[in-house]
Amino acid sequence: MIASVLPTYSRAPLTFTSGSGSWLTEADGRRFLDLGAGIAVNALGHAHPALVEALTTQAQSLWHVSNLYNIPAQQKLADMLVDQTFADTVFFTNSGTEACELAVKMARKYWYDKGQPARTEIIAFTGSFHGRSSAGIAAAGSEKMTKGFGPLLPGFTHLDFGDHDALNAAVSDKIAAIIVEPVQGEGGIRPLPDVCLKGLRDLCDQHGILMILDEVQCGMGRTGKLFAHEWAGITPDIMMVAKGIGGGFPLGAVLATENAASGMSAGTHGSTYGGNPLACAVGCAVMEIIATPAFLAEVCRKAGLLRQKLEGLVAAYPDVFEAVRGSGLMLGLKCKATNSDVVKAGYDQGVLTVPAADNVIRLLPPLTITQDEIGQAVARLDAAAAQIQSNLG
Ligand SMILES: Cc1ncc(COP(=O)(O)O)c(C=O)c1O
Fold first, then answer.
1. pLDDT for 182-207, tens place per residue?
2. What is the DSSP letter of 209?
3. Is 97 among the annotated ligand-binding positions?
4. Annotated domain spans of the chain
5. Which of 97, 104, 125 to mutate to test the pocket of ligand 1 (most atoms within 8 A of CB)?
6. How far apart are the first and last CA of the chain?
7. Is the pLDDT of residue 128 over 90?
8. Domain spanning 49-290 has what CATH number?
9. Mutate which of 41, 217, 245 for ligand 1 pocket (most atoms within 8 A of beta carbon)
10. Catalytic residue (choose from 109, 161, 214, 237)
11. Considering only CA atoms, which of 190, 126, 127, 140 is closest in space to residue 362?
């Protein structure tokens, strides 16, 4: 008999009843150091007082009004994002997937309105992840995500990261946009080198192609800048944001330049919940904390410390781990042992990590993780690695 919850997830045998800071607790009191943070969602950890306060205060006055009316928290959050980024305008969604839908629609509408309706093709990259909607899976293109779900949304070309010849060959006057994650998350924490991101920007500029960055996982302070593309000194035309921006409350956004958004007039897009007062109240509280130089400097400092300790772990357990990679507090341990075994061994030691493609385990701790917790995290990963090593014989 089918489970009452559609069985699309393979879940770990863990059930948490509360969370505080970097820790999750089961009903029997067992505590876990959370290096997954809801897959890069709980950017400020669990039950951050400023977020609890923002949510409960908003909940006591107004939960929801539709986008038929003005929503002050939405306006405030949009102003903050416009202030702090390349963007001139913001549309709020509930998730990263919905942000992908709009990014694709926006790029196509742009060219339609410019009198080039056939300019609809989008270049994407293998190993990418942009969500599970029809546009999202077509953009990612992997067999794992698309098999059995055809016919797929047409108009996506998939290239390998770093294949410059294929990229140059793929560029034509049919290309509306290029979509790329500055650091692939689900794909196994694969950062696109800054020089490549710059190269992509140049290519887009030469051919008038719109650059869409998917910063759903790598944005919102995760790499030590508010958005990962800032490291490369470039700006996109359209950017997808979600996960960390709501700190655990469902919220996403599409940020765009005035030019890229020029096709999106009243009635061309909408959402019942997107930009809801509760979500935006929390989003403002998240931005007030993360989008400050001191907070981001602290992310960089802690990231350096964690990375250094992980390098030590790789050196100590060469049969278990192969390398550390990533950016900021978006780190991956490429495994030699099976990554899911390492994740499970972590559970036994009270530390949570997240598997990714390419036999990687992801470490995406709350950005508020303390120096002491970093030490504890690595000690627990060390114990997990020792367990795996002894099983390997
Ligand atoms: C880079 C990226 N884009 C898009 C998504 C989809 O976001 P959501 O699950 O909020 O729909 C994800 C989710 O993991 C992601 O990592």
1. 999 999 999 999 999 999 999 999 99
2. P
3. yes
4. 49-290
5. 97
6. 40
7. yes
8. 3.40.640.10
9. 217
10. 214
11. 190
